[in-house]
Every structure is written in structure tokens, then in C-alpha cells.
Design goal:
The complex is a heterodimer of chains A (about 500) and B (about 150). Chain A is mostly helical and about 500 residues long. Chain A has 23 helices and 2 strands. The chains are: A mainly alpha (about 500), B mainly alpha (about 150).
């Protein structure tokens, strides 16, 4: 735990503290705007972090992530419009509470529940993370290769509703990761005599395009010309009644555990954590029929569950290099910007940075209480008066300035537009985007590891499977890919049997 | 709709994978083997998507674009904006985009648009040019004034 003490002193400097406060505020604002989401915001932020201290950059990522997860509850409660996908479950009881004139109370419960979930999740990251990292000390190139493959397979299969398309997207990402000079042989691959491709496709340029342009295009399609009226956003401050917090404690405990468990699973996200937590609270309640009609426990469960997913999703990312969700992949991208290689060695080589990020996840969860209070929430709600149509050019400008300042190359702007248009179409065709980015991140590590392992074994591929950990990881990877196939076969058999019986 | 879209998607990825594998054949040693395997893997995935679509008995409707006119307007504005950044300068092109796109999408409050555009461009200038001191494409009017 020494690394956490060293990291604490590094985080308690002016830069990271100001960054955390500013980013949490910004995160709540972004979450409060339907159409904008934390992934898009962090993708837009990444280019700006090149010249920053890594701890300041990660403080901003932590603040935006935790802040936006709470911010999503504001329109979910006031308008039944989830600000982020993770706040869908918040609408179930949040909006009925607002209809009953209890909007301020629902927002207060959402704020406290988000903070509790975030704090529990950060504590889980600080305790489980180091234990898992210690286990990775025995890993060699073969294990690194299989970890990358397992991460790709699990995210490819679990993210989205179509495993074949998920795996296809992952392979596309791996292939995009090979563009540029080969690190081991020095030959140029897929560069087509274009000097700007020699260094490979810039991960952040592709990422900004893939994740920021599709929501902008959707905003343009929706064409919101009005925004909201001031009357729709009127809120009054309401303190907690005696015993009210005590009544929420079991829900907070249960939802935190669910959120942490879901967060560690690759491919599962905050929306799944919120739904599971909501259902668990409903099942445990003595009056389940009141859920969906404005029960404060429903708001508490959904918000606590979706924030408890946040830091926990960083556990496999920081210790194994497997990002459990897109934000975790963005955190790994932020680390790569600063020359750090994601993977099991990250924890051992940069303990202060990794520990610092854990503490920042904890502190930004606490900051939600400060910036998400009644007065602040009233101000954040006002942002929804801005017509959505004005956000379209604003975000386009931010995307372009962010991408241009990375390398100062106009060609990057075209790459970003092309990636974004492709991302928009791929999403519509049910192809998940997260595996593409994951492939670009993990691809170079996978290639270098497998080639090093084969060099050590003098070209014998069997060596990739003979070490116990690598054999287990290989079996897990194959099982992960075959799992949806087995499920489909089982479903077809059951269907045939029921048809025969009929 | 879904069936024909998936057939086209599978064909595109299969073609992309085969082209990548063919190109990888010209690279020497292990530096070529790895992308070749990936290319063949991508082609296989594309073929699977095609095969599944071809065998599918249902063809559910799936809209690729909800409001095509607005999408085309936004994309065209993005392309024109990127094309104008170098000749006009970053802030001039950004101000033009912020003033032109909302009315093109049907927003008819010019003063509101102008105030938001001016405030936003000023904010970007403060953050990127004043505070972070990032070099951005020079403004045409500033360059011509310096030149003259």
C-alpha cells in the first residue's frame, strides 16, 4: 500500500486538485445534456492532454467520468430523457417523483447515491487492483499475448448484440493497429507511400472520429430547435427527512456490490449495473408494486449501481490491460499518449501514476456531493435551455481543434471525418465500435508478444500453450469465442424440440 | 432491409480482409504473417456475416439514417468546414460554421445564433490560443494584413 501513500501526495498538488474539480463540474454538465455522453467528452478531451502532466490528465478523465454519470440523472428525472445510457433505469422512478413535485428530492437522492456508488467502486479498485497486479508478475510474452486475445474476444463477444460482428470489429481494429512501420522488422505496412501513415493511424484521431461524430450527426438528425423552458426547470431545495438516509443504506450496499461485480466483467457497462441494481432493489422491497411509480429506492438503486461500475471497470484495464468498457479503453489511450504501455507491466512500472488515478476516482466521487448539490443542480438543469441544434457546430469545432493540435496535420481532420462517418454507419449496422479501438490499443502488444514468444521458442507455436497460465488463458479465449456458438446451437435444438413436440 | 444490408456489410469486410491479406503477402517474414492472418480472419468474419444473412428467413426493416436531409447537411457542413480551415484560418472557418449550420438545419433566431457563435469561438480562442498557446491555421485576414 506504499504506492497509495506516495500517490496521495502527488494527487494533493494544485494541478490535479483543480483538474478534478473543473472536470467533475464539466462532467455533470455533459451528462445533463442529452445527446452528449462521457465517452464523447473524454474522447474530445484526450487531444488536449498531450502537454499535461499525466496525473492532471487522468484527474480530468476521472472527473468527467464520475460527474457525467451523475449528470445523466438530471434530464432522466426532470424530463424522462436519460442523459447517458446508464441513466435509463433512473427514469423509471425519477420521473414519476418529478411528476409528484418531488424532483428536487429525487435529484438529491441521485446525487448521494452516485457518490456512494462511486466511492465504493474506487475502494474496490484500490484493494482488488494491487492483488491482481501482483499475480501478473509471473507473466511472460505468451501470457501477454493470450491476455490481449482474451480481452479482444471478451469485448468482441460481450459488447453489442451480435458476437460475430463484435469479433469482426475486433479483427478490424487489430488490422488497423498494424498500419505503419513494423516495430520489430522496420518495414512499412499498409502505408501506400504516404509519409503521414509511417507512424501508424493516430489512435486519438480515430477515437475522436468514431466516438464524437456519430452523436453529433444524431443531434443534427433530431434537430432540437427549442430547448426547454424555464418553467420546466424550476426546482426547490429539500433536506433529507429523519431516517431517510438509513432507509437507503441497504439499497446502497446491494447496488454497490452489483455495480462493482458488473464493472469487473469485460463488456458489461453502467446501464447493465443500473438495471440489475434496480431489479434487485425491487425484489428486496416489501412493496415492489410501488416501483415505477416514484419510489426513491428505485432512483437510489439505479444511480448507485451505475456509478459503482465506474472505477471497478478500471480493475482489468489497469492490471491486465483489458479495458472492460469504452471509458476504460479511453483511460488506456490517455496513458499511451504519455508514452505508457497498457498491460500487466503498467502497474509495476508506474505505481504512483496508477495509484494516483485510483485516488482521483475516489476524490471525484466525493466531489459529486459538492458540485451536485441543490443549487448547482439547478444551474446545471439550465443548460438544457440551449437548443440542441446549436451544439452540433460547437462540437464539430471542438473535435477539429482537438484533433488538429495533436500533430498539426490537416490530414488528421479528414481521417477523423472518415472514421466518424464509418462509425455512424457501423453502429447503425449493429457493429460495435469499442472492439475496433480495443484492437488498435491491444494489437501492437499482441503482435510483439506473440513474435517474442515465438523467437524464444525458436518458432514452435506449441510453446504458446505449454505454460499453465497461458494454457488457461488460451482455453478461456477459445471458450469465450465458442460460447455464443454453443448458445445458438442450444437455442436451435430447443426450438426444434418444441416444434417436434407440437 | 436488414438482410441486404448485412450481405453488403459482409461483402465489404470480406473484400477488405482479402485485400489486406493479399497486400501482406508482399511483406517479408513474420512482419507479413501477422497481418495476413488478420486479413484472412477479417475475410472469414465477413463471409460468416454474409452466409448468415443469406440463410436468414427474416428480413426486418432497419433504417440506416433517420432524417437523411439533416444528416447530409451536417456532413456536408463538416466537409466544407474542414476544407476551409487551411485557406480561411481556424477561427474564421469555425465562426462561419457556427453561423451557417444552425439556420441550414432550420434554426431561425439569428441574434441567438450570433451570440452563441461569438461566445463559443471566443472561449475556444481563450483556451487554445491564449492559455494553451497551441498553433492553429492562421487567419486569412491576419496573414493578408501582415503581407500587405
Amino acid at each position: 500500500m506504499d504506492f497509495l501513500l506516495n500517490a496521495t501526495s502527488a494527487v494533493m498538488a494544485t494541478g490535479p486538485l483543480v483538474a478534478m474539480l473543473g472536470a467533475t463540474l464539466l462532467g455533470v454538465l455533459i451528462g445533463a445534456l442529452p445527446g452528449l455522453n462521457p465517452v464523447m467528452a473524454i474522447a474530445l478531451l484526450l487531444p488536449l492532454t498531450y502537454s499535461m502532466d499525466p496525473l492532471v490528465a487522468l484527474a480530468m478523465v476521472a472527473g468527467i467520468y464520475n460527474g457525467s454519470m451523475y449528470g445523466g440523472a438530471i434530464p432522466a428525472i426532470l424530463l424522462r430523457i436519460p442523459g447517458t445510457p446508464a441513466s435509463i433505469a433512473t427514469t423509471f422512478d425519477g420521473f414519476p417523483m418529478a411528476e409528484k413535485g418531488e424532483a428536487a428530492k429525487a435529484l438529491k437522492i441521485a446525487c448521494w447515491s452516485s457518490a456512494v456508488g462511486g466511492i465504493a467502486s474506487a475502494l474496490a479498485l484500490m484493494t482488488v487492483g494491487p492483488l491482481l497486479a501482483r499475480a501478473t508478475l509471473h507473466f511472460g510474452p505468451a501470457e501477454y499475448f493470450w491476455i490481449a486475445m482474451f480481452g479482444m474476444a471478451s469485448v468482441g463477444v460481450m459488447v453489442g448484440s451480435d458476437p460475430v460482428k463484435g469479433v469482426m470489429a475486433a479483427v478490424l481494429g487489430l488490422l488497423l493497429g498494424t498500419v505503419g512501420i513494423d516495430q520489430l522488422s522496420g518495414q512499412a505496412r499498409y502505408t501506400f507511400d504516404q509519409p503521414w501513415l509511417l507512424g501508424g493511424l493516430d489512435l486519438v484521431v480515430v477515437l475522436v472520429g468514431l466516438y464524437a461524430l456519430p452523436p453529433v450527426l444524431q443531434l443534427a438528425e433530431k434537430c432540437d430547435l427549442k430547448g426547454l423552458s424555464a418553467a420546466q426547470l424550476r426546482l426547490a431545495s429539500v433536506p433529507f427527512r429523519k431516517g431517510e438516509v438509513k432507509g437507503l443504506l441497504p439499497t446502497w450496499g446491494r447496488s454497490s456490490l452489483i455495480g462493482i461485480f458488473v464493472g469487473i466483467l469485460p463488456g458489461a457497462g453502467g446501464n447493465i449495473a443500473a438495471f440489475l441494481s434496480y431489479n434487485a432493489a425491487k425484489n428486496a422491497s416489501s412493496e415492489p408494486e410501488s416501483f415505477g411509480k416514484g419510489n426513491p429506492q428505485g432512483v437510489a438503486a439505479a444511480e448507485c449501481g451505475n456509478n459503482a461500475d465506474n472505477a471497478a471497470s478500471m480493475i482489468p484495464a489497469l492490471t491486465l490491460g483489458i479495458p472492460g468498457n469504452v471509458v476504460a479503453a479511453l483511460v488506456l489511450s490517455a496513458l499511451m499518449i504519455h508514452g505508457l504501455q497498457p498491460g500487466p507491466q503498467l502497474f509495476h512500472q508506474n505505481p504512483v501514476l496508477v495509484g494516483g488515478f485510483m485516488i482521483e476516482m475516489l476524490l471525484t466521487s466525493v466531489l459529486i456531493l459538492l458540485v451536485g448539490g441543490a443549487a448547482a443542480t439547478r444551474i446545471f438543469a439550465q443548460i438544457q435551455r440551449l437548443p440542441g441544434v446549436l451544439l452540433v457546430p460547437s462540437i464539430l469545432v471542438l473535435m477539429c481543434v482537438g484533433v488538429y493540435v495533436i500533430n498539426g496535420r490537416p490530414v488528421d481532420l479528414w481521417v477523423m471525418l472518415a472514421a466518424g462517418t464509418a462509425g455512424y454507419l457501423l453502429e447503425k449496422l449493429n457493429v460495435p465500435l469499442a472492439p475496433i479501438i480495443l484492437g488498435m490499443i491491444l494489437g501492437p502488444m499482441a503482435e510483439q508478444s506473440v513474435r517474442r514468444a515465438l523467437l524464444i521458442s525458436r518458432g514452435d507455436p506449441v510453446e504458446l500453450l505449454t505454460r499453465p497460465i497461458s494454457a488457461v488463458l488460451a482455453v478461456a479465449t477459445v471458450a469465450m469465442i465458442l460460447w455464443p456458438v454453443m448458445k445458438a446451437i442450444k437455442r436451435r435444438r430447443a426450438k426444434n424440440m418444441s416444434e417436434n413436440n407440437a | 432491409m436488414e438482410r441486404s444490408q448485412d450481405l453488403a456489410l459482409g461483402l465489404l469486410f470480406a473484400g477488405l480482409g482479402l485485400a489486406a491479406a493479399w497486400q501482406a503477402g508482399s511483406y517479408q517474414g513474420a512482419g507479413g504473417t501477422y497481418p495476413m492472418v488478420l486479413g484472412l480472419g477479417l475475410a472469414l468474419c465477413g463471409a460468416l456475416v454474409m452466409l448468415r444473412a443469406a440463410r436468414s428467413k427474416t428480413d426486418a426493416p432497419r433504417r440506416l439514417v433517420d432524417v437523411p436531409a439533416n444528416l447530409v447537411k451536417a456532413l456536408a457542413a463538416g466537409v466544407i468546414y474542414v476544407a476551409l480551415i487551411l485557406p480561411l484560418g481556424f477561427y474564421t472557418a469555425s465562426a462561419l460554421l457556427m453561423l451557417a449550420l444552425p439556420p441550414v438545419l432550420g434554426f431561425r433566431r439569428p441574434l441567438y445564433t450570433a451570440v452563441v457563435a461569438a461566445s463559443f469561438v471566443a472561449l475556444v480562442w481563450i483556451v487554445f490560443s491564449l492559455v494553451l498557446n497551441k498553433p492553429l491555421p492562421a487567419e486569412l485576414w491576419a496573414a493578408s494584413r501582415l503581407g500587405g
